[in-house]
Amino acid sequence: MRQLTPTRYALFSLALLLIAVLPIKAHRRVIQLPSLGPRKGKQINATPVFRKLLEGLHPDLEKGGDTLELRFRPGRYHFTREGAVEREYFISNHDHAGSRPIGLLLRGWRHVIVKGEGSELLFEDRMLPIVLDSCQGVELRGLTIDFTNPQISQLHILHSDTARGIVFTPAPWVKWRITDKGQFEAYGTSWRSTPDHGLAFDPKTRELLYRTSDMLLPNKDIRQLTAREAAAMGIAGKHTKPLLCAPHWRDSHLPAGTVFAARTGYRPQPAIFITESRDIRLEDMNIHFAEGMGVLTQNSRDITLEHFHVQLRPRGGRYFTTQADATHFVACKGKISVQHCRFENMMDDALNVHGVYLKVTAREGKHTLVGRFMHEQAFGYTWAMPGDSVRLVTSRDIQGLEGSFHVRSISPADGEQLKGARELRITFDEEIPADYTPERQISMENLTRTPSIDFSHNLVRHNRARGILINTPRPVLIEDNTFDHVSGSAILFSTDNNMWYESGQTREVTIRRNLFQDVLTSLYQFTSAVISIHPIIPELASQRHPFYGQGPKSIRIEDNVFRTFDTPLLHAISTDGILWRGNKIEPTTSYPKFHPNQKRFLLEGCRNIDIEGSDLIE
Q1: How far apart are CA 239 and CA 223, in angstroms?
Q2: How far apart are CA 301 and CA 310, in angstroms?
Q3: How far is Cα 442 from Cα 374, in angstroms, rounded to an integer?
Q4: 579, 585, 479, 575: which is closest to 530 by C-alpha?
Q5: How far, in Å, are 306, 487, 562, 609 from residue 612 at the CA level?
Q6: How many CA atoms lie within 13 Å of 607's alpha carbon, on the beta-carbon side?
Q7: Closest residue by Cα to residue 368 from 341, 393, 336, 390
Q8: Would the CA dihedral through 592, 598, 601, 606 be positive or negative?
Q9: CA atoms within 13 A on the CB side of 111
Q10: Cα–Cα dist 381/384, whole Å
Q11: Alpha-carbon distance 145 to 130, whole Å?
C-alpha cells in the first residue's frame, strides 16, 4: 500500500473534512480545520494545505449566504513559501516587493468567521501572512501571527568602549554571518539583511533608553573575538556565545547590558493586509512580529479591532515587535474602531490614519487634471472611484481652494492600467476654475475616503516615534487610553502636502480621560510636545485662516492626566478652536528635563484657544 507523506496525509484529512461540513443551525455552517502537527518527526508545511482548502471553498465563500465558520484546532501551524499562492499588491506605506508569497489569501469572502481557538501561525520565510481582498463581513478571531526568524537582529551588548568599540552577541535565534566585507549580516532562507541602525532598550524594563532615538550602527570591520582577545578587553568569564567586536561602534549611550534592535528601513509587507473590503473585524489576536505594519488597511470601510494586540510574547526573549506601525489605515471610510488593544515595542506608531495627496502635474481642458503619487511607498492602488468628492489644496500654505469636485472618470496617465500607476488622469463633473493649474503648487485630496476614529481603552507603550498619528476631517475620539513611555509625542496630527503627502484636515477631536506616563523621552519628527498638532506648512505667515479645527471647542482636551518629567504638553500650529479643561499635571523625576521646547503650551498661527486652569500636583 502506498504510504502517505505528511503533506499528502494532511490533504487527505482535509478532503474528509470538506465532505463533512455540518450545519450547526439554520444560518451557520462550521468546518473544523485539520490539525497539522509533526508526523514521524517531520513538520508539515501548512501553506499548500490551506491553499487547497481555501481554493476549494472559494465558490461558497463568494455567495455570501449563510455564515460560514472555519475553526482551527488549537496548535502551531508552520508556513513556508513553498506552495504559496503569489500575488502582486501595491501596499501603501510599504516598499514595493513585486509578487508576494501569501500564507492565507481570503479573496471575495462574504460572511465568514475564522476562529483560531488560540492557534499560532508561524512563518519561516519572508511572506505576507494574511490577505483580505474584496471581502465583506469577515471576522478573524483567536489567531497569533509570528515569524521564527525575524528580520530585526537583536544584539546584546557585553562590553562598551569608546576607544575600542562595542562587543556584542546576537540573540540565539538570529542566523548571522560576517561577510567578506567585514559586515554583520543576518539571513534566512529567502532574505538577508545588513543592519545599519537600530534602537536601544533597557534590559530590565524593555523601555527605549532615554534620549537615544534612532542610533547608527557602523557595520564594518566586524570580527569574532577569541577568548584571549575578550579577556584582554576586560570581558571576564567563560563565554559559550560568540563575541563579536564592532570597532567603529563607539557610543557612550550604549553601556554593557543594553539590548539593541538592529535593523534596516526595509518594510516589504504587513502581517495582515486588508484591501477593498468592508465590515471587517479582528478580535482576540496577537501579532508578535511583522517586517512592516501589524495590519495595513487601504481602500476599505468599517473596520473594528478589539483585543487586537501587537505585543511581546509573555515569556519570550525579544524586545521588539513590528518593523513599523502596529496598525495603519489609508484611504479608508466609514468608522475605524480600535478598542481594548495593547501595542508595545513597535518601531513606529500604534495607529496611523491618513489619505494621500496627488500632486497636480498637468491640466487638460476644463474638467481634467493629472495627479501624481509622490512618495515611493504610496502608489499604484485605487485612489478614487467615479462619484468620489475631491478638493484641491495648496502645498506651500496648506489652504483648501474653493469648490468640491466629483470624479466622473479616472484612468492611468503613465501606462496601460490603473494598478501600479504613478500618475492618474481624473476628469470631474464640474468645471475647474481656470487658475487651478500646476503652477500654483496644488494637490488633490479625496474627501470621500476619510473615516471617523474611535481609539479607546488601549495601552500604548515602549515604542518608537509616536503613540498615534491621525489625519482625517471626520470625528475623532481618543478616550480612556494609557500612553506609557512612548519615546515621542503620544498623540500627533500632522498633515503634509510636501514630503509624505499624507492628507486629512483634522477638524473635530475629543481627547479625554487618558493617562500620559513619562512620554516624549526622545526627539523625533514633529514630536514637540506630549500632544502635537503639527501640520507641515512651509509658509505659515501666508495662511488666510487656520488649517485644523472648525471653530471654538472643536478640539477638546479634557480630564486627562499628564505624569511627566518634562515641560511641553501641547504644541499647536494653524488650529482654530482648542479647549483645554480639567487636566491634571503630575510632575515626575523619572528623567532630567531635556526638550528644546520648554513651554507648556506653544501656539502658532492659532485662534479661538480656551485654556482653563489645570490641576498641578507637586
Answers
A1: 16
A2: 22
A3: 13
A4: 585
A5: 34, 28, 15, 10
A6: 7
A7: 390
A8: negative
A9: 12
A10: 9
A11: 9
SS3 (DSSP) at 190: coil
Instruction: Give the C-alpha separation, 467 to 174, whole Å.
Output: 28
What confidence tens digit (pLDDT) does each residue in 415-465 have? Answer: 889 999 999 999 999 999 999 999 999 999 999 999 999 999 999 999 999
Cell reading at 197: 541602525
Q: How is 35-64 classified by DSSP, letter by letter?
A: P---BTTB--BHHHHHHHHHHHHHHHHHH-
As a whole number of Å, the end-to-end CA separation of the chain is 81
Q: Residues of 553-582 as b/e, b for ≥16 C-beta within 10 angstroms?
A: ebbbbbebbbbbbbbbbbbbbbbbbbbbbe
Calpha distance 377→115 (Å, rounded): 33
Let me know: does 333 contact 343? Beta carbons within 8 Å.
no
Judged by DSSP in three states, 7 sits in helix
Q: In what order do the strands lie in the sheet with 191-193?
A: 176-178, 184-188, 191-193
Closest CA to 376 of 414, 310, 410, 422: 422
User: Phi and psi of 452, rounded to 5°?
Assistant: -85, 155
8 Å CB contact between 503 and 449: no
Over its C-alpha atoms, the chain yields an Rg (Å, rounded) of 26
From the number of C-beta atoms within 10 Å of its C-beta (0-12, 13-18, 19+), residue 303 rates as: buried
* Per-residue burial over 221-260, b = 16 or more CB atoms within 10 Å of its CB, e = otherwise: ebeebeeeebeebebeeeeeeebbbbbebebeebebebbb
**How does strand 548-549 pair with strand 423-428?**
unpaired
HEC per residue, 552-608: CCCEEEECCEEEECCCCCEEEECEEEEEEECCEEEECCCCCCCCCCCCCEEEECCEE
Q: How many other C-beta atoms can be found within 10 angstroms of the C-beta atom of residue 523?
A: 15
Closest C-alpha among 257, 514, 498 to residue 397: 498
How many CA atoms does the CB half-sphere of 11 hold within 13 Å?
13
Q: In the prediction, which pLDDT does 12 show?
A: 45
For 517-548, the DSSP string reads ES---S--TT--SSEEE--B-TTGGG-SS-SE
Identify the bridge partners of residue 37 per DSSP, sorted by sequence position: none
Residue 522: alpha-carbon gap to chain centroid: 20
**Residue carrying the nine cell digits 483585543:** 307
Query: Residues in the chain with pLDDT < 70?
Result: 1-26, 38-41, 60-65, 237-239, 618
- Distance, C-alpha 198 to centroid of its chain: 17
Q: Which residues, other chains included, contact 101 with Cβ-Cβ below 8 Å and sequence gap of 6+?
A: 47, 81, 84, 85, 86, 125, 126, 127, 128
For residues 469 and 464, give the distance between their C-alpha atoms in angstroms, rounded to a whole number. 13
For cell 484612468, name the residue.
411
Q: Give the whole-angstrom CA distance, residue 590 versus residue 587.
A: 9
Residue 89 in grid coordinates: 499588491
Q: Which amino acid is at 539?
A: E
For the chain, how long is the longest CA-to-CA vector? 84
